[in-house]
Each structure stands twice: as structure tokens, then as C-alpha cells.
Design brief:
The protein is mainly α and 262 residues long. The chain contains 11 helices and no strands. The protein is globular and about 55 Å long. The two termini are 34 Å apart.
């Protein structure tokens, strides 16, 4: 299916499906991540070919991550622009490498490991006393944390992707000592950086359908605006349970879809 074919077959139900999925995913992503649980099945159900789903999903999620990052960035004193710029550079480098690798290799090797890591993240978020809105002394200097996480999580996001926001939030809280709302703001900015570079590479190899991607992006952007406002108002009391729940939800979804059944 091409963009022209999709546009001709768009119709009311496809439009409602991808707009609604984008709206819900954008709101969830802005708070805790995991919106791909909604957008990827919705794109498949709307008729986007499997080989174009990842690239098309990156197109719509780029808008949501960008708007959420901008909204968090407007809060006085919440985010440091120098750290944002440096972290974005490391993240884009990692994402570029990951996207180039995934176009040549299968991501199947990660499908057994990642659910276990995400389940561990969920448990850690729920039981650790570190997940609140107060900053703590960092375990590593923040510039080193952004370099380490940017390369590692950026690569993972470009290569595979599910749970990226959870890994960023946990890493920034645990290593950089950030409060959860501040960590969430940086997470959205880093998600935007990795999405931009991955999208550019997917566009270069022609695995993006622009029409469904931009249609879903309208809902994604609206949801991201709402979600960011809710996260800033609710703080750790809202973000913490959703982050744990979405981490576990992504883990269970990956187990259901990819683990072999006897």
C-alpha cells in the first residue's frame, strides 16, 4: 500500500482509529511512555504494511515527543538547555547507529531479554524510595549520565524501541539524582532526539507512509499536550504508578507477541 492508496481508502473508520490511537498514545507517552502499545496495532489494523509500520510510527511519535518536550521545557528552572543539547547529540548518535543496524539485522534477539528488563523496571519504580519529585545527589556527574544513557538507550530506541521512556526515566532518577518530573521532561526531549534521527533514516530507505503518519500525528500532538500538562500538575504521584504500569504492560505485550509458545 502506498500513500495514494491509503489516502483513497482512508474513510471515516480508519481516520477515527488512527486519530484516537494517536490521542491516547500521545497522552500516555507524555506521562510515562508506552504509547506504541496503541499506535503500532492501530496502524496495522488501518492497513499500513508491516514493513512500513516502524517508520510510520516514528513519524507520528516525533510530533508527540517534540510537543511534550517543548511543554516541559517551558517550566521555569526544570530543564537545563546545555544538558538538553549535549544529551540530544549523544542520543542521536546512538539512535542513528541502532536504526542502521535494524535495517540489516533482526531484532529478535532482544525479544526475550527486554521483557525481563522492563518487568524489573516496573518493580524498581514501585518499591524504590527514589521516585519522587525531589532531586538527590547524583551517583554520576550528569554530563556522563547523558553520554552513557544517550548512546545506550538511543541505540536501543533506534534498533528496537519498546520501553525507551521507562529506561530513560529510571536511569536519570537513579544515576543523575533527578526528581521524577524533571527526569520525565528530559526523557521526552531525548525521545524526540532519537525519533528525529530514526525517522530521517527510515525516510531515506522509503519505509514511511506519510498520510497515516501525519493523520495519527494530529492526535498524538493533542494527546501529548494534555499528557504533559497532567504530568506537570500531578508530578510523581501521577507519573510513578503510570510508569510502573506501562513498563509492566510493555513487558507482558512483548512476551505475548514474541516469545515462543509450546
Amino acid at each position: 500500500m502506498t500513500d495514494a492508496d491509503f489516502l483513497a481508502a482512508l474513510g471515516t473508520w480508519r481516520t477515527a482509529l488512527i486519530l484516537g490511537a494517536g490521542l491516547a498514545a500521545g497522552c500516555i507517552d507524555a506521562i510515562a511512555g508506552g504509547g506504541g502499545l496503541l499506535t503500532i496495532p492501530a496502524l496495522l489494523a488501518a492497513g499500513v504494511p508491516p514493513e512500513a509500520v516502524l517508520g510510520t510510527s516514528k513519524l507520528q511519535s516525533t510530533f508527540g515527543a517534540g510537543l511534550a518536550a517543548w511543554r516541559f521545557g517551558r517550566e521555569p528552572g526544570l530543564l537545563d538547555r546545555r544538558r538538553l543539547a549535549a544529551g540530544a547529540c549523544w542520543t542521536m548518535a546512538g539512535a542513528a547507529a541502532g536504526t542502521l543496524v535494524v535495517t540489516r539485522l533482526s531484532a529478535a534477539a532482544l525479544t526475550r531479554l527486554i521483557p525481563l528488563l522492563l518487568a524489573a523496571v516496573a518493580v524498581y519504580v514501585w518499591v524504590s524510595p527514589r521516585f519522587h519529585d525531589e532531586d538527590r545527589p547524583p551517583r554520576l556527574a550528569p554530563p556522563r549520565v547523558f553520554a552513557l544513557l544517550g548512546l545506550a538507550i538511543g541505540f536501543y530506541d533506534g534498533f528496537f524501541g519498546p520501553g525507551t521512556g521507562s529506561f530513560w526515566a529510571v536511569g536519570l532518577v537513579s544515576l543523575a539524582g533527578y526528581g521524577l518530573t524533571r527526569a520525565t521532561g528530559y526523557t521526552k526531549a531525548m525521545n524526540f532526539a532519537s525519533n528525529v534521527i530514526s525517522l530521517a533514516l527510515f525516510l531515506s530507505i522509503g519505509t514511511v507512509l506519510v498520510v497515516p503518519g501525519l493523520t495519527m500525528a494530529v492526535g498524538q500532538a493533542a494527546g501529548a499536550w494534555v499528557g504533559a500538562r497532567l504530568a506537570l500538575r500531578g508530578g510523581a504521584r501521577l507519573i510513578r504508578p503510570l510508569l510502573g504500569a506501562m513498563s509492566l504492560g510493555v513487558a507482558l505485550t512483548l512476551v505475548w507477541r514474541f516469545w515462543p509458545r509450546r
